[in-house]
Amino acid sequence: MFLFWNYRWFLLHFIFEQLHINYVITTWPTSNTSNIQLLGLFKDAENTSSPTDLSVHSRAMFKAAVLLSQQYNITIEGQFIGWQTVQTGASTIAAVSGVCQALSTSDIFGIVGPSLSLEVPITAEFAKEIGIPAVSYAATNPDFSNRNMYPAFYRVVPSDSAAAIAIVKLFIRFNWTSCIVIYQNDQFGTGGANIIKDEFHKNDLTVATMVVFDIETRSIRGNLSTSLIGSTSRIVVLWATSTYTPLILQNALDSNVLGPKFTWILSSSVRLNSFDKKFSQQLIGMLTVEPTIASAVGASINTTL
Fold first, then answer.
1. 107-112 and 82-87 as β-strands: parallel, antiparallel, unpaired?
2. How do residues 81-117 score in pLDDT, each as one tens digit?
3. β strands within the chain, DSSP E
C-alpha cells in the first residue's frame, strides 16, 4: 500500500511539473504587433523534453518585462516593444544563426542574452558589428568586463570576480592558505579559475594544484585521487556549472576524496539527494559560493516585475 501511494504521489508531482513548464511556455500572449523587437537568447534546445529551470524562468522574466513595458506605454519610434526568442541548445552557431534569422524579419534593437559564457564572444562580436547592445542575464566570465574587447556587451549579474573575492575572504576568515582548483575547460571554467588565481596571488594565498574537467569527455583529466592526495592542500574549490558538478562530485565520492579528508567549496548548488544515501556522511561540510536574490541580503528589488 505504501509503495502504491508513493507511486501515485510521484505521478501527481510529475504531472504538476509538466503542467507548470507548459503553462510558463504556452500561455504568453503573442508579441507580433510591433516590428521593433528585443531578441532573447536562451540555453535550452528547441522542443527539449527536459528544459532547465534557468532557461524556463529566464524566458518568463524576459517576456514579463516586455509586457510591462507595453503597460507602461514605453515606445520606440512610436511603437511598442515586441519580442522574439531563440533557444540555442548551448551552441554558439545556433545563437548567431538565430540572431541572423531574427534580423532578416524584424528590426532588432537589442539582444537579451546569451546565458552561457561560451556563447558570449561570438555573439558580442556580432552585436558590435551590427551596432546593437547584448545584455546577458547569466554570463559571468570576468573577461567580458573589458570594455575595449567587448564594447557592445553588458550584463545584469555580477562577474565571477565577486565570487572570487568572497572565496578569498572565506580563506582569510578561517586562516586557510592554499587550495586545489577543479574547473571545467570552457569560457566559464577557465575564466573563473584565472580570476581565483589572480585574487589568491593578491592576498598571498596559493593555488597548489589545478585539475581540469573535460566537458567533451565528461571526465577528469588524469586521476582525481592522485591529484588531490598528492597535493599539499586539503581545500578544494570546484568551479563548474550545475550540469557538471554532480558528475565531478560522484567521481570524488568514488575516489574517496570528499569529507572529512577534504573540504569542498562549490560554485553552484547541487541536489544532495541525487547521490546514494550511503555517501551522506561524506557530503557533510561542503560549502557553496553563489549569487543570491537581493532581498536575502536586504538590497532593493523591482517588486513590480
1. unpaired
2. 999 999 998 888 999 999 999 998 889 999 999 999 9
3. 36-42, 75-76, 79-80, 82-87, 107-112, 134-136, 153-155, 178-184, 206-214, 219-220, 235-239, 263-266, 287-288
Number of domains in the chain: 2
pLDDT band at 305 (very low <50, low <70, confident <90, very high): low
In a 3-state reduction of DSSP, which class is residue 274? helix
**pLDDT score of 16:** 41
State which of 125, 155, 185 marks the end of a domain.
155
Q: Pick the closest to residue 220 from 248, 192, 240 (CA basis).
A: 248
> Strand 82-87's sheet: what is its strand order?
82-87, 36-42, 107-112, 134-136, 153-155
Question: Per the domain annotation, does 4 fall within a domain?
Answer: no
Residue 64 to residues 50, 141, 304, Cα–Cα distance (Å): 22, 27, 10
In a domain, 133, yes or no: yes
Q: Is the pTM of this model over 0.90?
A: no
Cα 167 to Cα 288: distance, rounded to the nearest angstrom: 10
Do 139 and 176 lie in a common domain? Answer: no
Pairing of the two strands 206-214 and 219-220: antiparallel
Buried b (16+ CB within 10 A) or exposed e, 87-125: bbebebebbbebbeebeeebebebbbbbbbbbbbbebbe
Domain finish residue from 104, 130, 155: 155
- The domain that holds 68 is classified in CATH as 3.40.50.2300
Band of residue 296 on the pLDDT scale cut at 50, 70, 90? confident
Residue 131: which residues within 8 A CB-CB, separation 6 or more? 152
Distance of alpha carbon 165 from alpha carbon 168, whole angstroms: 5
Structural domain includes residue 252: yes
Instruction: Give the domain extent around 203.
Output: 160-288
Mean pLDDT of 103-132: 92
